[in-house]
Amino acid sequence: MEFREYWNIAIKRGWIILLVAVVAAVTALGVSKIMPEIYRASIQLSVNPARADWGLSQATKDLLRNYVLNITSHTMTQKAIDRAQLDMSTYDFLANLDVSADSSNMSITIQAESRDTEEARQMAQTLADVFVAERLQWNSEQDKRDRIEVTKVDNIDDAPLASPNRKFNTLAGAVFGAIIGVVIVFVLEWLQSDVVRSAADVEKMIGISVLAAIPISGQGRAEGRGGLAWPAWLNSGMALIFAIGLVIGAGLGALIMALL
Questions:
Q1: Which of 56, 133, 147, 186 is within CB 3.0–4.6 Å of 139 for a Cys-Cys bond?
Q2: CA 195 remoteness from chain centre
Q3: Which CATH number fits domain 38-163: 1.10.10.10, 3.40.50.720, 3.40.190.10, 3.30.70.1130?
Q4: H or E element: which one contains 102?
Q5: Dihedral sign, CA of 65, 97, 72, 52?
Q6: Per-residue confidence in pLDDT tens, the chain, 260 aa
Q7: Are 78 and 154 in contact (CB under 8 A)?
Q8: End-to-end distance of the chain based on CA atoms, in angstroms?
Q9: Helix (H, G, I), strand (E, B) or coil at 170
Q10: Total-model pTM
Q11: How do the domains of the chain map onto residue ranges?
């Protein structure tokens, strides 16, 4: 197939791709607007040994995983709930909590999510405060040279919106819809690959120049009624395929965007 033929297909069928892309983008935006807003608060803890000793530094790195285990315990989260007076159980707290350790920079990151920005901030901030206070109590009973200090890098000022990302969802929906549109165009062209539409198609098929053509009587009747007629390629089968593809594309696009 020559480039000109691809160009002709793009001119003739391009509206299908654009339409499906727009429908998928609008659907993704609509789903994003009705999805509940989730806010995420994040705070970092710095873990530092009392002296620059290799053995103590290695011990500190090994303790990071134990610190994460303690932070994500029901006991620790219950203390945070009581201090912040949060209306939730420890199971709800832990379900919206993510704690990770990074041994490369000796830090622990606490992330809490909630539909309320202030609640998310209180969850992460209070949990960090409780753990730091507990480590201070432990250090007070140790020799200064053996202490492992845990401090907050910064306090939490706000909890930004984590999901849904409306701009990303809309863009992804448009791209996904465009792909579905290309598939629909490909199917339509494949189903009509053996259909002869013009004298040029006849010449290309049999390799002989066409000198004359017999006019189609149906076309004459259509012109007699005012020249309004369906395009030759738009029969009931093509319309059904296009409608099914449009619905499937929009539905899948909305589902994927809802999961992002």
A1: 147
A2: 41
A3: 3.30.70.1130
A4: strand 97-102
A5: positive
A6: 555 666 676 777 778 888 888 888 888 888 888 888 899 999 999 998 888 777 778 888 889 999 999 999 999 999 999 999 999 999 999 999 999 999 888 999 999 999 999 999 999 999 999 999 999 998 888 888 888 899 999 999 888 888 888 888 888 888 888 888 888 878 777 766 655 556 666 556 565 665 556 665 554 444 444 444 445 444 555 555 566 566 666 665 555 555 55
A7: no
A8: 39
A9: helix
A10: 0.63
A11: 3-34+164-195+233-259, 38-163
Taking residue 14's Cβ as centre, other Cβ atoms within 10 Å add up to: 13
Please state, in angstroms and rounded to a whole number, the distance separating the CA atoms of residues 211 and 5. 23
How far apart, in whole angstroms, are the C-alpha atoms of residue 131 and residue 250? 48
Tokens of 56: 């103590």
Structure tokens given for 84? 């912040």
**With contact defined as beta carbons under 8 Å apart, do 49 and 183 qualify?**
no
